[in-house]
Amino acid sequence: MPHVLLIEDDVAVRDGMELVLRRHGHRVQAAGTGEEGLALLARPGGGGGAGAAGGAIEVVVLDLMLPGLDGFEVCRRIRARSQMPIIMLTARGDDMDVVSGLEAGADDYVVKPVTARVLEARIRAAVRRADPAPRTTVPEEFDGLVVDRVGLTVAKRGTPIALPPTELRLLLELCAAPGRVFSREQLLQQVWDHGFLGDSRLVDAAIGRLRAKIEDVAARPRYVQTVRGFGYRFGPL
After folding, report:
1. Strand pairing of 4-7 and 140-142?
2. Which domains does the chain have, with CATH numbers?
């Protein structure tokens, strides 16, 4: 079961979530502040990511409204050094909070209070995205962008590009069918495992982060194109 780092300042909420996750078989490390959570990740073997030896933390569940170092900054700091999945917790589902959290690098979000079943499903989905199954053993090249589905690496004109699991899975889905238009609902199903009840902001924010890394000019994308009113398609211009 995935090893979880839970960063939540409300003692009752933190203890309840920790108890539920442990009952489901997860190893859990809990922190009450952003600084404490970052310190746990900084320990030897603390942030090795999915599949790392020694029981390294595989997924972070992060409250946004933390005292001191808030969740947005914690998310940015984790993302600057690790590609592990981050699920943010928000009390209101406020549009600005959600968008800001996703832009900071979170992969998914849940609104408190969250049921154990929903949180467990989101954690499992996040870890599955970190280990996408290869569809071909031959690296594919798209006008200078090379995608290796076995090694799970991406490079542009010979320069490696580090992508978090969600962005990598999104790119793998899009480039598996160049020219095909994917609706946001289809991408939510295939990348996030959310079905048709998911939030399309997850898709738009991840597309924005992906473009910032693979495009020469994110505002004029060549690889991941918007099909207005329908969704997105992959195909170098």
Report:
1. unpaired
2. 4-129 (3.40.50.2300), 140-234 (1.10.10.10)
Of 178, 181, 203, the C-alpha closest to 191 is 203
**Calpha distance 112→48 (Å, rounded):** 28
175: tokens are 């480039």
Distance in angstroms (rounded) separating the CA atoms of residues 196 and 189: 7
Q: Which two tokens stand for residue 213?
A: 């890394």
C-alpha–C-alpha distance, residues 81 and 78, integer Å: 6
Which residues, at least 6 apart from 15, have a Cβ–Cβ distance to it below 8 Å? none
The model's pLDDT over 99-150, given as tens digits with 9 standing for 90+, comes to 888 888 899 888 888 888 888 888 888 887 776 555 555 788 898 999 998 8
Determine the Cα–Cα distance for residues 213 and 117; give it in Å rounded to an integer: 34
Residues near 58 by beta carbon (within 8 Å), at least 6 away in sequence:
2, 3, 4, 49, 50, 51, 52, 84, 85, 127, 130
Model confidence at 48, in pLDDT bands (50, 70, 90)?
very low
Cβ atoms of 46 and 90 within 8 Å: the answer is no
Asked whether the beta carbons of 51 and 131 are under 8 A apart, the reply is: yes
